[in-house]
Amino acid sequence: MSSRLRQLLPAMLFLALVGVPRPSPGATGKLYLKDGSYQTVSSYEVHGDRVRYYSLERSQWEEIPASLVDLEATKRAEEQEKAAHQKELEEVKSLEAERFEHPVNTGFEVAPGIRLPQEPGIYTLDGLRVVRLIQSSAEVVKDKKRMALLLALPAPVLKSRAYVVLSGEKAAVRLPPGQPTFYVQLPENVGARMELMGVKSSKESRIVEKVEQRSGIGKASEVREGVPLAREEIAPGLYRLKPTRALGPGEYALGELTPEQKLNLDVWDFGIDRPGAKP
Q1: CB 224 within 8 A of CB 262
Q2: Which residue from 90, 151, 112, 110 is spatially nearest to 239, judged by alpha carbons?
Q3: Angstrom distances, CA of residue 84 to CA of 88, 121, 128, 197, 273
Q4: Which range in 43-57, 113-127, 206-220, 228-242 is most confidently predicted, on average pLDDT?
Q5: In this structure, what DSSP letter does residue 265 have?
Q6: 254 and 194 in contact (C-beta within 8 Å)?
Q7: N or C: which terminus of the chain has fewer CB atoms within 10 Å of its end residue's CB?
Q8: 63-111 confidence digits (pLDDT tens)
Q9: What burial letters (b/e) apply to 5-28, b meaning 16+ CB within 10 Å?
Q10: Containing H/E element for 268?
Q11: Is the distance from CB of 164 to CB of 207 less than 8 angstroms?
Q12: Rounded Cα gap, residues 58 and 61, in angstroms
C-alpha cells in the first residue's frame, strides 16, 4: 500500500461510509475555454448560444458566449474526475476489506461467537469486530548531520546514526485506549518473536528505532522503545499478545525480531487516539 493512501485513509474511509454528494449533471470544477484558459465554477448551464455559470472566483452567476467555451474539453474533464473518484472508492473498499475482517465460523474463537479468519495475519478486537493490522515497510534513513560531523573529525570519536522510519504521521489503523489483545497468526511461530514498540511521530514520518555504530567498527546497536508483553501460545502457531500496561495515546508497531535481536523492517503499525479526539 502506498504512503499516499495510508495518509489519506481516515478521510477516505469517512467519505466511503457517509457518502459524498456528487455534482449534478452539468456541474464541474473547471469550465474550459477555447483559448486554453478555464473558469473555476461550481456549476454551469448551456442555454442556446450562451453558457451560464457560477464563478467560484467572484461568487456570482455570469454568462459567456457558447462559441468561446470548449464543451468537449469540459466534459472530458468531468469524465476523468468521475473515473478518478470511482477508482478512489474502489481503493477504499479494498483497504476496508484489508482492515476489517468478517469473522467466519472456521477460525479460532477469540470471544463468544467471534472467530478469527483462517488467513495469516495479526488481528485484534474492536468491540465485537475483528480488526486486521496492516503490514507496513519501514526504511533506514541516515542522520545527515551526524554524518557531516564524522567527516569533519580527525578520529572516529562519534557514532554514525540512522533511523528506521515509517512514512506518514499516523498509522491507518486506530484502536481505542486500553490494553488491546493481539492474535498473531503467522507461519514459523513468528508470534514467539514479536515485540511491541512505541513509535515517535513527526509531521511526515514515524521513527521506529535508532541504529548506531562507531564509524563502521563493531556491531551496530539498535535502540527502540519496547513495551512489555504477556505472551501465550493458545493454538499451534497462534499467539496471544497483550501489553502488561494500558497503552497511552500515540503511535505503536509490532515487529519481528531475528535470532540476533535485529528488527525486521516489515512491521504492523497502529495508533491510539486520545478519548474524544477527532479521527
Answers
A1: no
A2: 110
A3: 6, 31, 34, 37, 31
A4: 228-242
A5: S
A6: yes
A7: C
A8: 999 999 999 998 888 888 888 888 888 877 776 666 555 545 468 998 8
A9: bbbbbeebbeebeeeeeeeeeeeb
A10: strand 266-272
A11: yes
A12: 9
Question: For residues 61 and 52, what is the distance between their CA atoms, to the nearest angstrom?
Answer: 7
As a whole number of angstroms, the distance between CA 196 and CA 207 comes to: 14
Closest CA to 252 of 194, 208, 186: 208
Residue 49, all three cell numbers: 448560444
Contacts of 23 (CB under 8 A, 6+ apart): 42, 43
pTM of the shown model: 0.57
Side chain identity at residue 250, one-letter code = G
| Site of grid cell 515517535 | 200
Quote the pLDDT of residue 181: 95
Quick one: cell of 240? 496471544
* 10-25 per-position pLDDT tens digit: 544 444 444 433 333 3
